[in-house]
Amino acid sequence: MSDAATELTEDQKRTEWLGWRKLGIGASDVAALCGMSPYASPMSIYIDPSRALPVEPRTKAIHP
Q1: Residue 42: inside a domain, yes or no?
Q2: How many domains does the chain have?
């Protein structure tokens, strides 16, 4: 049984997930790194600014 005080909100879960995502290469990066993606290149993965920027919390005004 979980303690209500230790449960994470959806924004906290998303923020934690995005933090973990920055630590490595995800499945969506593999095609780009292999030169097989029409949307990204190995260089775009390397210089992706979202990997260097802090995660901003989502708001309902921005993301309903």
Answers
A1: yes
A2: 1
Provide CB contacts within 8 A for 41, sequence distance 6+: 32, 35
CB atoms within 10 A of CB 50: 9
Distance, CA of 26 to CA of 16 (rounded, Å) = 15
Domain of residue 44: give its range.
25-51
What does the pLDDT look like over 5-52, one tens digit per residue?
567 788 888 888 878 877 888 888 899 999 999 998 998 888 876 665
Which has the closest alpha carbon to 15: 59, 61, 46, 47? 59
**By C-alpha distance, which of 48, 2, 6, 3 is closest to 24?**
48
pTM above 0.70, yes or no: no
3-class state of residue 12 by DSSP: helix
